Amino acid sequence: MSQKTDQWFQQAFAFHQDGRLAEAQKLYLRLLEQTPEDPEPYYLLATLKSQQQDHAGALPLFERALELRPGHPETLNNLGLALIHSDRLDEAVTQLQHAIAAKPDYAHAHCNLGMAFVKLERHQAATDAYRRAVELDPGYVDAQFNLGLSLYRLNQFAEAEAPLRRTIELCPEHASAYSDLGLVLKAMNRLSEALSCFERLCALNPSSANPWINYGATLLDLSRFEEALAAFRRAESLDPDAALPHWNTAYPLLGLGQLQEGWEAYEWRWKINPILYPLPYPEWEGTSLKGKTILVYAEQGLGDELLFASCLPDLIRRADHCVIECEPRLALLYSRSFPSATVRGARRYDHRWINSVPGCDVQCALDSLPRYLRREINQFPTRQTAYLFAEPEACQTWLTWLNRLAGKIKIGICWRSGLMKGERHKHYTRLEQWGSIFAVPE
User: Fold this and answer.
1) Do 154 and 173 contact (CB within 8 A), yes or no?
2) Model pTM score
3) Pair type for strands 362-365 and 321-326
4) pLDDT tens for residues 217-244?
5) For a Cys staple, 163 with which of 72, 147, 238, 427, CB 3.0–4.6 Å?
């Protein structure tokens, strides 16, 4: 490199470091013309383009730099990062693994490899990569944060806590770390600690709605309904068009007994989870059903279908006829419990059954029935009456079997849901927690 080109290089590099990218780019391009066999201008210009989010422009420059300087770990790493941003993930993994092979203690390459694995939804591999990056550089903020986030994705909440706390130690203003640590603590039912994280998050991002949503959700878990409602209202004011804060207000409103307003807010769920394949009837709006047939369709999970079915007896009394769509596993139970209705068990959004039932005048989602049938406390049944009925022969079989256990304690256990991801796991026990119960004589 001549003295003149060396001066250009030093000046370009200084511009680059100062953030004067346009000026740096001009000098890098001039260097490429004068020194086309020097890999460094290719590498630095490619890095500059990546900083400008021009990953398509960066890729051929990184590739040319590698041709001129094969096996260079920094070039391999940055090429891998550009490939990640270009969604060429398998190629990114290959280049990052080459970088690590060339420089095994390269913490940034391990961290970037974790990013590629996350995008490929290989979360355990991502966790291993982030863990190695942290081992190599415990002060590497991004690696600590990504390790915590990756463990959270794997529902390894206890393990996720330490790297997220370490992230905050290294970077006390790291808002995302407070957010994810709060979610981890909330998942472990350490609600007061989670609340502190979300309070800090709200202070760091006072104009963002999401921190207030998480803050309100934690207050809701603590049954602090008025405070939760205030937090969700704050989120509404910060992002009036977002559906989630409006929907979330339903839960504290219902908890406070403000049923009419609560059920109206609950309808905001449709903005988040719209019906993909709507049925061909007008929506029921609480009007008279005399002489009419109403279709009630399943909408959410099995538990919701059992819970909201408590409204069906009232609806059946109002309508001339009621057609009920339900999860197939509930069809026999519903048919037995609501014998005057037409019941069809069907998989969600599979409406081929509709031609086998009487024509309907209106339709309503099962979870929307309380909007019209439970608007006041006094609209709930005053007596504890059953609305679902077990199969008599099965009952008799079980009674006969249980009667053989005379003198023994009989305990029925609802074991767990089929969906255990995320926070849901905290609602279910583990087998080892039953030791003291199993130890009770008889």
Assistant:
1) no
2) 0.83
3) unpaired
4) 999 999 999 999 999 999 999 999 999 9
5) 147
